[in-house]
């Protein structure tokens, strides 16, 4: 089972792509830090300083300015995330995020899907704020 989330950002695909893969930019909308530039085949450590947490991802596929695929989560619950960038013109991009790997027989499936969707919507909203207005909303969510 998968979860799909979309948003339109008023920036070209190359700027959106760089926001994800550049460790100097990702801290403005998603994680506090990224250990290095995202490239196919690399293992990247992502940190959330405000939660004193970190996790690793495996970058499975990169298509510059178009697609990022990575795997994350504990071995028994690994998920694959695909980020597609669809440039509409030279000034706007649709970002589509699909996370796969949810187990249909999981008794907590609905809760996990809702939490997952909330996370992607929040991250994409922060990305939009950062790219379009230069604001950092990243650490504003309180759970």
TrEMBL record:
Superkingdom: Bacteria
SUPFAM superfamilies referenced in this protein's UniProt entry, alphabetically: Bet v1-like (SSF55961)
Pfam families assigned to the protein according to its UniProt record, in alphabetical order: AHSA1
Ranges for domain Activator of Hsp90 ATPase homologue 1/2-like C-terminal: 12-132
Transmembrane segments: none
Family as reported in the entry's similarity comment: Belongs to the AHA1 family.
Name recorded for this polypeptide: SRPBCC family protein
Species per Swiss-Prot/TrEMBL record: Metabacillus arenae
